[in-house]
TrEMBL record:
Keyword Transferase part of the UniProt annotation: yes
Membrane topology of the entry: Multi-pass membrane protein
Functional note: Catalyzes the second two steps of the methylation pathway of phosphatidylcholine biosynthesis, the SAM-dependent methylation of phosphatidylmonomethylethanolamine (PMME) to phosphatidyldimethylethanolamine (PDME) and of PDME to phosphatidylcholine (PC).
Pfam families: PEMT (PF04191)
Pathway: Lipid metabolism; Phospholipid metabolism; phosphatidylcholine biosynthesis
Family: Belongs to the class VI-like SAM-binding methyltransferase superfamily. PEMT/PEM2 methyltransferase family.
Residues binding S-adenosyl-L-methionine, per UniProt: 212-214, 294-295
Cellular component aspect of the GO annotation: endoplasmic reticulum membrane; mitochondrial membrane
Stretches within the membrane that do not traverse it: 126-146
Lineage: Eukaryota, Fungi, Dikarya, Ascomycota, Pezizomycotina
Name the UniProt record assigns to this protein: Phosphatidyl-N-methylethanolamine N-methyltransferase
One BP term from GO: methylation
Species whose genome carries this gene: Orbilia brochopaga
Subcellular location per the Swiss-Prot or TrEMBL entry: Endoplasmic reticulum membrane; Mitochondrion membrane
Length: 317
């Protein structure tokens, strides 16, 4: 069990063709470093294909299909000693330590011409899985919450029977989980490889344009709809008198969703991350799926009001 002040570092060391020599070098490096860093605990695990191996690894070893996984638990005080050490272990871990502790010194972008698309996204990163889940969760949450409110007045009851307070409560919740999702998205991008064609000046310019356009769509739609119109007020019975047809709704029928998608894409390109582009595709797919549920339901809410008004008008005659 690691102490709270320890740093967990994971990395892979490609085995040389002469495995016996490589294994001896690693053992020697471990012995040397443990002696040098006598005050810290250093645990070394040899792992081949998820199986703990004895000290003497089997031969022959095919480096095309296997690698040695090494996990180090190193106290922060030991980091500077490792970086300044001339041991073989220092040579192995230098880049990994710097990438983990100082993100600004991360690995160089992958070359588009000579790299494989399989290298562009690191699916082993837990942060990527968390970002995928959060992107999926948000629209599912607010659709379930809104329909629960429409049918059972769940949120209004929590807001002491006031539909406006209920709508404000839902607005705060949706806004908060949106900020949290964006933070998880950015955190996931930091753990992903970059691609050189996405780090050019032209790519940066495109990213800025996409991000600005996306935010213009989002902010202007919020301005046009107001707070209750933006945050599902119609599910609370807070209906608008007229359909909004001014900008940005004269450009697209769902400016909030498409604007958010553009912002995600702009962020992905700005950081040069193909994984961000992939997550943006998920954002778009999730939003399009949400629209298939939301648009017909919202249309029915307003159609029901028109029918009620027609009935009331007949009674008034």
């Amino acid at each position: 069990m690691m102490a709270k002040d320890e740093v967990e570092l994971f990395f892979h060391v490609r085995a040389a063709t002469e495995l016996g020599e490589e294994n001896s070098r690693l053992r020697a490096a471990t012995t040397h470093t443990t002696a040098t860093l006598a005050s810290c605990e250093l645990t070394l695990y040899y792992n081949l294909c998820n199986v703990i191996l004895p000290q003497q690894l089997p031969q022959p070893f095919d480096e095309r299909h296997h690698h040695i996984d090494i996990t180090f638990y190193i106290s922060p005080e030991a980091v500077s000693l490792i970086l300044s050490s001339n041991s073989p272990l220092s040579n192995i871990t230098m880049d990994v330590l710097r990438e983990k502790l100082w993100p600004s010194a991360a690995a160089k972008p992958l070359p588009f011409a000579s790299s494989s698309p399989a290298e562009w996204v690191d699916f082993s990163q837990q942060s990527l899985a968390i970002a995928i889940a959060s992107i999926l969760f948000n629209p599912v949450f607010w659709n379930i919450a809104a329909r629960s409110e429409y049918h059972y007045k769940v949120i209004t009851k929590l807001a002491f029977g006031n539909p406006y307070y209920g709508c404000y409560l839902l607005a705060i919740t949706i806004f908060s989980i949106g900020i949290f999702r964006d933070a998880l998205y950015e955190n996931a991008l930091r753990d992903q490889p970059s691609l050189d064609i996405l780090t050019t000046t032209g790519a940066k310019t495109l990213a800025a344009i996409l991000f600005a356009a996306g935010n213009i769509l989002v902010i202007s739609s919020m301005w046009a709809l107001g707070l209750t119109g933006t945050y599902l007020g119609d599910y609370f019975g807070i209906l608008m008198d007229h359909k909004v047809e001014s900008f940005p709704f004269n450009v697209t029928s769902a400016p909030m969703y498409y604007g958010s998608t553009l912002s995600f894409l702009g962020t992905a390109i700005w950081f040069g991350k193909p994984a961000g582009v992939l997550l943006t595709v998920e954002v778009l797919v999730v939003y399009l799926a949400a629209l298939r549920f939301e648009d017909p339901f919202t249309s029915e809410i307003y159609a029901r009001r028109r029918r009620q008004r027609a009935v009331e008008a007949k009674k008034a005659r």
